[in-house]
Amino acid sequence: MSTACPRRTLLGLGALLALPGCALRPALEHAPPVALPGTRRIDIAAGGPHGHVHRVMLAVPPAPAPAQGWPVLYVLDGDLMFALTAQLMRNRFARGPDVPAQGAVVVGLGYAGDQVLDLDARTYDYTPPAPGPATDERGRREGGADAFLGFIDSAVRPLVERAARVDTARQTLFGHSYGGLCVLHALFTRPGAFQNYVAASPSVWWRDGFILREQERFLAARRADAAPLRLLITQGEREAQTPADPARAAIARERHGAEHLRALLDGLRGAPGLDWRFMSFPGADHGGSMAPAAQQALALTIGARA
Fold it and tell me: What are the pLDDT digits (tens) for 134-184?
């Protein structure tokens, strides 16, 4: 025992731990990292010439599953968004087992490693195959969204369905920015893969509005008796405003993002079997719109039935 400790601290371990300078003082800098209860993760190599090592994260509600199983919310950019969304789900059960609550299985789709955003990997996985260059202006590969969505269907879904009791008729895909672009691509090219789609601040400007061409094909093929789908598009209020920073303002003008988004929304009007809505979050910019979008995606997942 350190001689720096007063002799009276021997009377109680609690007092010993509380006094500065004592040998048994807790050291926060060496404490273990925080772990989110009720979560698991696994890393899976996607394979292929541009395959990445994906990190699949799972959160299951802390309650018995309903008879039909839990709905499932698939969250893109999982390294950034999974912990937030999973905790929002767990918060619904904070009042204990005696208070009924609705929940959902939350599946985060990220990448192995310690990056909050793997920009190279997400640029490839979240952008549709399109005519033109294979890379963007930074040299990042693009056009892998079909392979990525196929990976979710063939590799991730079976894992989730073995790990938790889920309702395969209540599935939501949620993504922000490039992830929102990927969500729209999934809706327009494989509308039967999910029942609900949440595109938060989608990068509709990408490749001069390429996603609008996919929308046109989707609408042309959409039949009046098609299975019903739900789509939520969100945006931060400040995203619709001209940025004060000259450099950001120039980028906004070059991308014509506002015009492309208006064209997207106008095209959705009257789409058969598509229950869609647009939400703007007051005071939020591009990054600030992620948290409220996650709340809305969870609410849609829990409240939606096919």
Answer: 999 999 999 999 999 999 999 999 999 999 999 999 999 999 999 999 999
* Active-site residue set: 177, 239, 286
pLDDT tens digit string along 195-228?
999 999 999 999 999 999 999 999 999 999 999 9
In the structure encoding, which two tokens stand for residue 290, read together?
Answer: 């992620």
- For residue 122, report the phi and psi dihedrals to the nearest 5 degrees: -70, -30
| Residue 233: count of CB within 10 angstroms of its CB | 24
Question: Would you state the torsion angle of the CA atoms of residues 188, 193, 198, 199, taken in this order, to the nearest 10 degrees?
Answer: -40
**31: phi then psi, degrees, rounded to nearest 5:** -70, 155
Relative to beta strand 53-59, strand 39-45 is antiparallel
Write the pLDDT tens digit of every residue in 236-293: 999 987 665 665 655 555 555 789 999 999 999 989 999 999 999 999 999 999 999 9
Q: Can you give the residue ranges of every domain in the chain?
A: 1-31, 36-303
Quick one: CA dihedral 69, 274, 221, 191, positive or negative? negative
Placement of tokens 């609690």 in the chain: 14
- Rounded to 5 degrees, φ, ψ at 34 are -70, 135
Rounded distance, CA 93 to CA 98, Å?
10
Which contiguous run of DSSP H or E holds residue 157? helix 157-163
Q: What is the assigned CATH class of domain 36-303?
A: alpha beta
Closest by Cα among 212, 216, 182 to 198: 182
Q: Cα separations (Å) of 30 from 1, 73, 124, 291? A: 20, 35, 38, 30
Residue 234 gets which letter from DSSP? Answer: E
- How large is the angle between the packed helices 257-268 and 246-255, nearest 10 degrees? 40
Beta strands in 96-182 (DSSP E): 105-111, 166-176
Residues 6+ apart with CB under 8 A from 286: 177, 201, 236, 238, 239
- State the DSSP code for 48: S
DSSP state of 137: T
